[in-house]
Design a protein that fits this description.
α4 packs parallel to α6 and α6 runs antiparallel to α9. This protein has 9 helices and 5 strands; from the N terminus they run ααββαβββαααααα. By secondary structure, the chain is of the alpha+beta class. Helices cover 79% and strands 6% of the residues.
Length: 565
């Protein structure tokens, strides 16, 4: 079956919606990563550098206790050559003599013994020498040779030395950008996976709904001769679509049986009404002949014997026709009663169809409630994913703090630093998994809301069909009333026919006495003429009622032929 534009349009809307949500979530994720992670990374780096300078200060104080003011160059190199920040290639450590402002250690050997060129550190040394207030431990940003720099320093050994750890600020931005690029790439991959799943699920659901819609549309077109194998295949599915298909199948079977009976009975009614109309025409013709015979009797007594004989023959023929009319009326009454019973059965069946439609509406409502409950459960999972995200963020902070403590511990904390790094990676993976769960749950909630709207549309269609069934039931009620009126008129026809039979017997007695009672000929002729006139009027009434019955039968047959079995 060719799909309607409406369904295709809905699928397009779903795809556009999913794409828009994915793009927005990816952009939001990138922006959030840049703002939050960049800020967090800077704060963590500040604490880390301060921790390194504090640990380095302890090393300087240990060396001072051992060598006093004459610390050898090789001792400086031994303890400070390995101190750096792994993530920042430009990081370096150097030690400045506060009194002379010369560098006692630097990773570049040519700078050892040269005055410090860092204006911040140089200003710090001048403040210490001048006896001004200063910060013993600090984190600063400055420019050196046009490059933005960051540094942490610590003043050691009674303000004699300054330990400085510096790095280029662009290295921090580079690290943050790499993390953001990885986050965006992962979000894009997740977006394509979600879109693929949405296309697959929506296509499968729409296909099943299209098949059920086709069967329902056949009923709307009064077609009861659909593909039974296809309907059975839909009914065998263990889903809400299968339940709807079963209800539609029961509805179609009930309508098929009811309409078949209606067609048979309407055909019989039309046949009997035509037969009754033919009998009425014959009787009317006979009454005309009797009326002519009575006129001949009134013309003269000379032809009385011949006219009497002719009247006897005509009366006998009238008796035969009256007997046939009585039998036809009895048969018509039997057929009318059968048609009334069939109409009652059809009305009951249509009522059962209405009940089946109500059951379908109830099942649709249950499906709607079930999908709403699924949306609520998805919202609960969404909240749980938020909790996982919070736990992952806290775990990341704990891992960074553990890294700082490991750095402070020196060689003894190297193993713990590796464990802290692994915990940080696990926290990051947990955070990414939580984000993916949130995206999937949002998709599930959107699909559930769309399914609720589609089920509401199906419910509206079924309610519209229920209204059509009510109209059919009303028509059957009208037909039932017409049949009951026909039965009453048939009783009237039967009574009139019995009266006609009585008049016939009385007329035969009169005709047989004409030869002996010639003086009463005129009176008897007038009485016979009056009886024939009355009989003719009754027969004309019977003909009119037969025409009405024929019209009712035609209407019933026309309505029944609208259904295709």
């Amino acid at each position: 079956m060719k799909k309607h534009f409406r369904i295709t349009n809905v699928k397009s809307i779903i795809m556009v919606m999913m794409l828009t949500i994915s793009v927005v979530v990816t952009a939001a994720n990138a922006l959030t990563s840049y703002l939050e992670y960049g800020k967090s990374y800077n704060e963590t780096l500040e604490h880390y550098l301060k921790g390194l300078t504090t640990s380095s200060r302890d090393i300087v104080e240990t060396l001072y206790e051992k060598y006093s003011d004459n610390i050898p160059d090789n001792e400086w190199k031994k303890y400070f050559s390995d101190i750096k920040v792994e993530e920042l290639p430009s990081s370096s450590v150097y030690v400045v003599d506060v009194k002379t402002t010369n560098m006692l250690y630097h990773k570049t050997a040519e700078k050892i013994g040269q005055p410090v060129s860092n204006e911040v550190i140089l200003g710090l040394c001048n403040d210490i020498n001048a006896g001004k207030n200063f910060e013993k431990d600090a984190y600063v940003e400055y420019k050196f040779d046009g490059e933005k720099k960051i540094a942490a320093y610590s003043v050691a050994v009674s303000d004699k030395y300054v330990i400085v750890i510096s790095a280029d600020k662009k290295d921090i931005t580079s690290c943050v950008n790499i993390i953001i690029v990885k986050s965006v790439a992962f979000s894009l991959i997740s977006m394509f996976i979600i879109l693929g799943a949405a296309v697959f699920i929506s296509t499968k659901v729409m296909k099943q709904l299209d098949e059920v819609t086709e069967v329902v549309q056949q009923l709307g077109r009064l077609e009861l001769n659909g593909n039974d194998e296809k309907v059975e295949e839909l009914c065998n599915r263990k889903s809400e679509i299968g339940d709807i298909a079963k209800a539609v199948r029961d509805l179609r079977d009930t309508l098929r049986s009811t309409v078949a009976n209606l067609k048979d009975n309407s055909t019989k009614l039309a046949s009997y009404s035509k037969e009754l109309s033919n009998h009425s025409a014959n009787v009317s013709e006979s009454m005309g002949n009797i009326d002519g015979a009575c006129t001949d009797i009134a013309e003269g007594a000379t032809s009385q014997a011949d006219s009497t004989e002719e009247a006897i023959v005509a009366t006998s023929k009238m008796g035969t026709l009256i007997d046939s009319s009585i039998a036809a009326v009895d048969e018509l009454k039997v057929v009318s009663n059968e048609m009334k019973e069939a109409t009652d059965i059809a009305s009951d069946k249509l009522s059962e169809v209405g009940e089946s439609n109500k059951k379908v509406i109830d099942v649709t409502q249950k499906i709607k409630v079930s999908i709403s409950e699924t949306s609520e459960s998805a919202e609960s999972i969404h909240q749980a994913a938020n909790v996982i995200t919070d736990i992952a963020s806290q775990t990341t902070l704990l891992a960074l703090n553990a890294s700082i403590e490991a750095a402070r511990a020196g060689e003894a904390g190297r193993g713990f630093s590796v464990v802290a790094s692994e915990i940080s990676q696990l926290a990051e993976q947990s955070n990414q998994a939580a984000v993916e769960i949130q995206e999937i749950i949002n998709n599930l909630i959107d699909n559930s809301n769309q399914s609720v709207e589609d089920i509401q549309d199906a419910k509206s269609i079924i309610e519209e069909q229920t209204e059509h069934l009510k109209d059919v039931i009303d028509r059957f009620e009208v037909a039932k009333d017409g049949i009951e009126r026909s039965l009453k008129e048939i009783e009237n026809v039967k009574d009139s026919t019995f009266e006609l039979d009585s008049s016939k017997n009385r007329m035969i007695d009169i005709i047989q006495g004409l030869s002996a009672i010639s003086q009463q000929n005129a009176a008897s002729t007038e009485e016979t003429s009056a009886a024939v006139t009355q009989t003719k009027t009754v027969i004309e009434g019977v003909s009119e009622r037969a025409a009405e019955v024929s019209n009712v039968a035609s209407i019933l047959e026309e309505d029944a032929n609208k259904w295709k079995l």
